[in-house]
């Protein structure tokens, strides 16, 4: 995204009606930075275990899908400026994360525990996105 598109997207997002509990924009960068570090470590561990044939594909799959849906969110929300599709996507991020953590629980509980901040943030983000979508329908 070039500077003009980023400015246009920021202006579009700024004009949306948001619920009272929406955090200021500057909060998102540091939170996601911390979460991406957690994701890199834990999801990387799951990938390495799969590559070493210590985990089956069915346990890797929800982690991989979560990354796809997570990566799709920003282009959908800020590129397409589509709140409805972004709402569906954030629910898919949440659903695949719950699936991933449930699937790894018996093999590597630390992965599930380490992802609690990610789970809490995505649950909050889903409520926020659904609220924004509803308020701007």
What topology does this entry show?
Elements lengths: L2 H13 L12 H24 L5 H24 L2 H22 L4 H6 L1 H20 L2
Helix pairs in contact: 2-3, 3-4, 4-6
In brief:
This protein is mainly α. The protein has one domain (25-135). Helices cover 80% and strands 0% of the residues.
Overview of the molecule:
By secondary structure, this protein is mainly α. It has one domain. It contains 6 helices and no strands. It has helices spanning 3-15, 28-51, 57-80, 83-104, 109-114, 116-135.
What are the salient characteristics of this protein?
mainly alpha; 137 residues; elongated
Beta strand count: 0
Low-pLDDT regions: none
Helix share, percent: over 70%
What's the overall average pLDDT, rounded? 95
Rg of Cα set: 16 Å
Query: How would the global form be characterised?
Result: elongated
Element order: H for helix, E for strand: HHHHHH
